[in-house]
Specification:
single chain, about 160 residues, alpha+beta, Endonuclease, Chain A, 4-stranded mixed β-sheet, two-stranded antiparallel ribbon, 4 helices, 6 strands
């Protein structure tokens, strides 16, 4: 059994294959990713105002969407295809599966839990995949904002 797969290995991080790989993993951002920046910039140019990386303290827990339109109660997440297991581009890890498979599964479970918390609290959740075009992403967000405004005015 390899040294990094012994008892309790699920708690350890895998040893990077190379220095370059270690540098790549260290450079991965939690927020301000290129797809997120592009979407934020485009929405701002269109006149939309929002909070970025805003922590929402909900009755059942905390959620931190990438963009929060607080007045309309719309939360937007820009998800990476690998990290959030995209149904189109997500793939099984080929190295250090003992580490990555459970980690990616937890990411997806956390996403579903956040969606549920937000929906129970009356928020609309929009999930944009990094592979979607900027125009598709803008359309998804604007459709949700328009619907949320209509729903609020109907009350």
């Amino acid at each position: 059994m390899p040294a990094n797969q012994g008892v309790g290995a699920e708690r350890r991080q895998p040893v990077p294959v190379s220095v370059g790989r270690a540098r790549n993993l260290a450079a991965i951002r939690r927020s301000n990713t290129k797809p997120e920046l592009a979407l934020r910039s485009a929405l701002h140019r269109r006149g939309w105002r929002f909070r970025k990386d805003h922590r929402l303290d909900l009755p059942e827990g905390r959620v931190r969407p990438d963009l929060a339109f607080t007045r309309r109660r719309v939360a937007v997440f820009v998800d990476g295809c690998f990290w959030h297991v995209c149904p189109v581009h997500g793939r099984e890890p080929t190295s250090n599966e003992w580490y990555w498979t459970p980690k990616l599964r937890r990411n997806v479970e956390r996403d579903r839990f956040a969606d549920t918390l937000l929906q129970v609290a009356g928020w609309t959740v929009v999930r944009v995949w990094e592979h979607q075009t900027l125009e598709e992403a803008i359309q998804l967000v604007e459709d949700a904002l328009t619907q949320a405004e209509q729903d609020q005015s109907a009350r």
